[in-house]
What does this fold into?
Amino acid sequence: MKKILYMAQSANGYIALPDDETPWTDSEWAEYEKKVQEVGNIIIGRRTYDRLTPEGFISIGSPDVVVVTTKDLTPKFPKTHAAHSIEDACAHLSSKGYNECFIGGGSQLNKSALEADLIDEIFLDIEPKIFGKGLPLFAESDINLDLELITIRQTGQNTMQLHWRVLHK
It folds into this structure.
């Protein structure tokens, strides 16, 4: 199963403001929604799940949602499953017949996927914003990774998308 990390970030590397707000452009949200709909699933952390609204769930195509959490989860959307690790989340989606899984953040989940060597490709949308403080793409880790650039494309008036392949060692 191909594991795709897809994130938007500010030009200085933050995926959200300190209060978890993600003030991205409409074109960014459209790209994100399109990719979730294409894959049909999304793996997210608990903080990201708690911010997901019914309207947001519908706009991303009502996908299979796997929430990586160590706490009890009361599903607020259909097709929601709790997993205790990123590995369990990927295994759950594989058992449902998916060939790809969409890792949609946040910072701690991205770190877990990185440390478990569970990222095959990264889509990174660079938004025309600078945040003085915020959440980094990956929470701090000792892992280093080499990437191979697949494509660069402009997705909005001032937004660029970088698409990389992870070079597994």
Observations:
- The longest helix spans residues 26-39.
- The chain has one domain: 2-160.
- The chain has a mean pLDDT of 95.
